User: What shape does this take?
Amino acid sequence: MTRTATTMTLAAAALSLAGAAASADAAPEGAPGSAYTGLRGSLAFEGSISARDEATTPPTKVKAGADTGGGASAYWGWHLPYNFKAELELLYRYQPLSDISAAGSSASLGGYAQTFAPMANLYWTLPLSDIGVTPFVGGGVGYAWNELGIDNVAGVALPATVHNDDWRFAYNLMAGLSVPVGHGTRLTGMYRWLREDIGSSCATTSFCGAHAADRVMVKGEWR
Assistant: This one.
């Protein structure tokens, strides 16, 4: 084969590869196998921390309240067949504590509750793309790091902030609406209910329970 023929063959192969890449880039938004990434900002409504003190007989139920806080997350997702999406998410949330109640009495509580969690979520989108607005529902599980810090009880400051942190199981449920705002870009409003276990096993500590909170989230998504 001559050098000219070889050059023309290589050029044709390069053009063929370029055409294939262009076709892949032009895949329709939401096509199975296509990927996306994005950021979320969230407003965490008043939540509650329900627990029990195993040091008493019978165990004493304890409930702490959390004021409105906020958080953020980054996520990576893939479109699946039948309008499903799978996501990996890293989320963070912070809420100030407000009050505590136990054995029929209550008092103010100063401090904070914060969470960091990697989550695996699955969403299903209603097939209503014709109207532009896309409703969806979802759920997921993860492994959350939770920390409680208490520095004030009934208006009395503690000598030092009392900390309790641990990695425990977490799960969430979501629903929302997604709206396209440009080529490959969407704006989404989502309601999320998130629950995390807190504390260590009751076999080794006198305090264990769960933390639940509602969140309204706004996110941007890019393909």
